[in-house]
Structure formats: C-alpha cells, structure tokens
Design a protein that fits this description.
Blueprint: H1 8-25, H2 33-36, H3 73-79, H4 83-87, E1 90-94, E2 102-106, H5 110-125, E3 135-136, E4 157-160, H6 179-186, E5 190-192, E6 204-207, H7 256-266
Length: 277
C-alpha cells in the first residue's frame, strides 16, 4: 500500500488533537504543598523602587482606623486580617543613632531592619553618622485625604526626620539624607519616598517584602480567613422592580440637595503633609 504524504494543514490538525488528548487523559501534574501554600513576597510602594507597585486596600472610612477595621487583599492575607491582628504582630525597633528612639513595626520586616542597623554601624565605624531626631512607625490611619490604608497602619513604614525631609506634592526632592544612608535602606529591601515618580516623601521608608532585592527574612504565609464559604440554600429571587410599566421617565438625583451632596462628596479633605503616605 502506498502512503500519501500528510499536508501541512493536516499535520497541524493532528498536533492539536494530540495536545488535547494529552490534557484529557493525563491532565496537569497534581499540586504540591509548595504550590497550594501561596506566598506574597513584594509590597513595593512605587515602580521606581525596583518592582511593580502594590496599592494598599480601601478602608471603610478616612482617618483613624479602629482595631476592628478589616484589611482586604494580599495585605490582609499575609500581614493581618484586621488592625488588631497587625497590632498583635508589632515589635519595637530602636532606630540607630537616634538617642534611643524606638518605633513599632511589623515583626516580618525586623530581619531587614537588623540588616539596616548592621550597615549603619559599619558606616559609623568609618566616621559617617546621620543623626535621627524624630521617628515614627505604626499608626492606624489611612493616607491623608484617601480611603486607602497607610502602610503605617500595616506596620510596614517608618518616617525619619520629617522637618529636614518634607513631603512634596510638586515632586521636588528636599532632603539632608546622605546617599550612603539611603542606600543602607535600599539595599535591605526598602522603598524610599525620595525615589517616587510623581511626588517626593524623603522622610518615608517602606518595606517591600522578603522577595525584594536585598531583603532578608522568611516568606510570608497566608493567615487563616475570618469567614467561611457557605453554599447557597437555593436559587435567589430577583427583587421587585419599584418602577412599573407606564410610569414614564424617572429622573433620579436632580434636585439642588443632591447636587450639593455630590459636590461635597467629590472634594477630598485637606490633610497635613506628614499624613500623605
């Protein structure tokens, strides 16, 4: 029997069928423990800090946040489901060359802060010291004028010498921090506010997670969820329609009171400069 050559179209079709058959009969490899225990290693605050930025989740209100405030998304999964859970993981860190000033920070970033301390002590041995007169860490609040969690509320940020390193919404960098001092933080996995693209906040250092370049410490493991998945007992009925046929066109929110309410809602409150991160 004489064999006929297979055309290019036929060969392509045969390859596709073979791939589909392989998926059907064999399927993907079963997930291992390392696959199912996911990890989140990067919480960068700016793409200019070496990795894509991860915005913090929204809170239910602006300003001060209560201990019961729920933290959604990866920040809640790996740092604490509520403000109270974050607080339970806070530890004290003594800021180098600050006359003993201490700040509360999330214990996950303590190994990276210890690396900062070691680097600054090595610099001091060479005669280089940058003195800290003011330091701030954990603060349970949102970013000023925003509903987003501040990284301070998650224990991930530290502010140093705000008077000499002020926030600038005009993207003007004003700082007295030496480059070697900033590099001690960069090389330990921290994002410096002076490196931000559109605004500058040189007082501000935020930890980018154990996966950041230079960071040290174990990977972050998921925390137990606060809620469980409950299956539906049955079909969900559609709610009754309040607008009946023949009612004519309905205009909603056209009164003066509605316009005034929308106008007030659209304006963000003015916040102090030190609250804008």
């Amino acid at each position: 029997m004489k064999l006929r050559p297979v055309s290019q179209t036929g060969a392509t079709l045969l390859l596709v069928v073979s791939l589909i058959a392989g998926l059907v009969f064999f399927g993907p490899d079963p997930a291992t423990a390392s696959d199912t225990s996911t990890r989140r290693d990067s919480f960068s605050e700016s793409t200019h800090c070496g990795s894509s930025s991860t915005p913090t989740p929204f809170a239910s209100k602006q300003g001060y946040l209560y201990d019961s405030e729920v933290i959604l998304g990866p920040f809640g999964t790996y740092l604490g489901r509520t403000i109270a859970e974050v607080e339970s993981q806070l530890v004290w860190w003594t800021v180098p060359y600050s006359d003993g000033r201490r700040v509360r920070i999330h214990q996950a970033m303590l190994p990276s802060l210890e690396k900062v301390t070691a680097t600054l002590e090595a610099e001091a041995a060479q005669g280089r010291i940058y003195w800290i007169g003011s330091a701030g860490g954990f603060a349970q609040r949102t970013i000023g004028g925003s509903y987003r969690f501040s990284r301070h509320a998650l224990g991930l940020s530290i502010d140093l010498n705000p008077g000499q390193n002020p926030f600038s919404g005009d993207n003007v960098l004003i700082t007295d921090m030496p480059l070697w001092y900033v590099n001690a933080w960069r090389n330990a996995g921290f994002c410096w506010g002076g490196d931000w693209e559109h605004i500058k906040d040189p007082m501000h250092f935020s930890w980018m997670g154990p996966g950041a370049e230079g960071a040290v410490g174990p990977s972050l493991n998921p925390r137990p969820p606060k809620t469980t998945i409950t299956p539906l007992a049955g079909p969900i009925a559609n709610p009754p329609n309040p607008i009946r046929p023949g009612d004519g066109p309905v205009r909603l929110g056209t009164g003066r009171r509605d316009r005034r309410r929308r106008s007030r809602r659209g304006r963000a409150p003015i916040s102090p400069r030190w609250l804008r991160h």
